[in-house]
Write the structure tokens for this entry.
Amino acid sequence: MSEKPTIMFVDDEERILRSLKMMFRNKYEVLTTTTGQEALQMMRQIKVHVLVSDQRMPAMLGVDLLRQAKTVSPKTMRMLLTGYADKEAVIGSINEGEIFRYISKPWKSDDIRTTIAEATEIALSADSEDIMLDEPAIGKQVVVVLDEDPYVAEFISGIVTQDFGDSHRIEWCTAFDQVTNTLSQGDVTILITELNFMGDDMGIFIKKLKEYTPNIVTIVTSSFQDVNTLVGLVNEGQIYRFLPKPLRRGMIAMALKGAFHHYNAMKNRPALMARHKVKPTTQAVETSSLAGRVMGIFRNKQRAAG
């Protein structure tokens, strides 16, 4: 049996599979298939460290394959590969496939090599970690809601109270100072944020917050659905869910249940946080922005700890 890590590429274009196999065969055991059904069957029989699937396939879309692969082989690192600006695919990959990275066609050879090497390393290090269905709750958990609409905060607060009891606390923030004060006081379990908050770009804030507090679980709610923004939130922010507005109760309740489990899993077994490592963002951060203020908080904490 080969000692090389195993990666699987799924694409309905044979020429793409041949190209990828040639690129990676020296360092990895490379499996290829043109169908999602065959990929799942192979994953039931063989340990696959990294799965890279195209989105646009005739029999099974890539996001559907990634969703099923999460159940069949939960330790496999999952990535979506596509050449189309497909909004539904990106949202589905966030909410259903919980992917590690979104890779656009045509890819850059150095970038895809680096991404797959990183994913493989994480998968290998996580081999000894169990991915459990149930996780014991850890202390009183704080949910921060960033939205200028009071209805949103009241709506989410009511769901948390009714479905999860008083072991959780909602902090509704409508100004930058409230956000920075809340973040500086202690650990936040879940961040639920609108993409546009107080006229600020929340994308860079989300990315930087995840960089400094990797255990935080972020849910983005917005009617704004730009594909490039969503791709950045996957790769550089590792957001847990994207929920389009108007919000529905069942959608929020399911996302919160999963988010609490996700947070508890990472707290109980910190090694799992590597599976949600962010790609460093190259966006500039203004010191006057919310992202700039947050960076200041955590830099000060690091200096004090040192």
About this structure: The chain has a mean pLDDT of 86. The radius of gyration is 20 Å. The longest strand covers residues 77-82.
